[in-house]
UniProtKB/TrEMBL annotation:
The entry's keywords: Membrane, Transmembrane, Transmembrane helix
Xref: Gene3D superfamilies: LysM domain (3.10.350.10)
Protein name per its UniProtKB record: Peptidoglycan-binding LysM domain-containing protein
Keyword Membrane: yes
InterPro entries: LysM, LysM_dom_sf
TM annotation in the entry: 12-36
Origin organism lineage: Eukaryota, Viridiplantae, Streptophyta, Embryophyta, Tracheophyta
Length: 123
């Protein structure tokens, strides 16, 4: 009987080793699937974005707009070459300064500045 117990222990150890390896393999496969799913969902978004907050506002560095962003969404990111006047003309919201207390000087609008607007229905 003593010899049979050793074989059973060895068989049990082997079975546990196989179960442990299978468990890690399933965990790794699940992790890969989750990562692939998150990468697939991330398409069409900015890949690298830095967001900084200052007294003068919020600045996003990277791509200035999201893929598919309408020109006059409620959250608007100022692009290169835009002025407050051009944004007002584009979006039809003459009250941008009043709705954005972080804009202290209407002439101090720069690329990456995030502003809230109320887009007109015709824009």
């Amino acid at each position: 009987m003593a010899g049979g117990g050793g074989i059973n222990n060895k068989l049990l150890a082997t079975a546990l080793s196989i179960a442990d390896a299978a468990s890690w393999s399933c965990t790794l496969a699940l992790l890969v699937l989750i990562l692939m799913g998150s990468l697939r969902e991330g398409r069409g978004r900015m890949s690298e974005v830095e967001i900084e907050t200052f007294d003068s506002g919020i600045v996003m560095r990277g791509s200035s707009t999201l893929v598919g962003q309408q020109p006059c969404d409620e959250i608007y990111v100022v692009s290169e070459g835009e002025t407050l006047h051009s944004i007002i003309d584009k979006c039809g919201d003459p009250f941008i300064v009043e709705r954005n207390p972080h804009i202290h000087d209407p002439d101090d609008v720069f690329p990456g500045l995030v502003i809230m607007i109320t887009p007109s229905s015709s824009a």
